[in-house]
Amino acid sequence: MEMQTVNSMNYEHFLDVFGNVVEKCPLVAAAVWAGRPFSSVSALEKNIGDFIDSLPRSGKEGILRCHPDLAGRELLRGTLTPESQRELSQAGLTSLTAGQRFQPSELNASYKSRFNFPFVICVRMSDKETIIQQLGSRIRNSPEQELQTGIQEVKKICHLRLLDISGQVAQATKL
Questions:
Q1: Per residue, what are the HEC states of 2-53?
Q2: pLDDT per residue over 41-90, tens digit each?
Q3: What is the Cα–Cα distance from 63 to 20, expressed in whole angstroms?
Q4: Crossing angle for the helix pair 98-115 and 143-174, to the nearest 10 degrees
Q5: Which residue among the candidates 60, 67, 128, 138 is catalytic per the annotation?
Q6: pTM of the predicted protein model
Q7: Is residue 67 annotated as part of the catalytic site, yes or no?
Q8: Domains, the chain, with CATH or none
């Protein structure tokens, strides 16, 4: 990624490009924009991670609540963000039959009831069997442990989305 391009983006353009690196949380991109200039994509990612880490518990829970239920209502309604749609599709979660959606749906409901936020996992680093296994396993975590695990998964998602964007920005600057 040409960091000169990123660093020269005005606020609105920066939000357009980076506003969904943390699912439905353009506030994160807005907060780190003022930290420019960034020396690298890694520096941008570190600023995002530092901002997330600085949030109080309620802010971290809010970030987790912005994520859709895996194979849930937003998928069925077609209202996922393009990034989530792509990620869930790559993990095979967009092609589940109604019968196959039952187990993750039930586990999601139990998880949300216990933690008050949806289960978050970097689906691009997993397959559907691992995702369902993790959903069943992580429900036994303590609320604090699960909050931290969920935030670490958000950071993995952010990392991969930044890599996707960096490739797109690099291609656009060559045109």
A1: CHHHHHCCCHHHHHHHHCCCCCCCHHHHHHHHCCCCCCCHHHHHHHHHHHHH
A2: 999 999 999 999 999 999 999 999 999 998 788 988 999 999 999 999 98
A3: 11
A4: 120
A5: 67
A6: 0.93
A7: yes
A8: 3-62+157-174 (1.10.3330.10), 68-153 (1.10.3330.10)
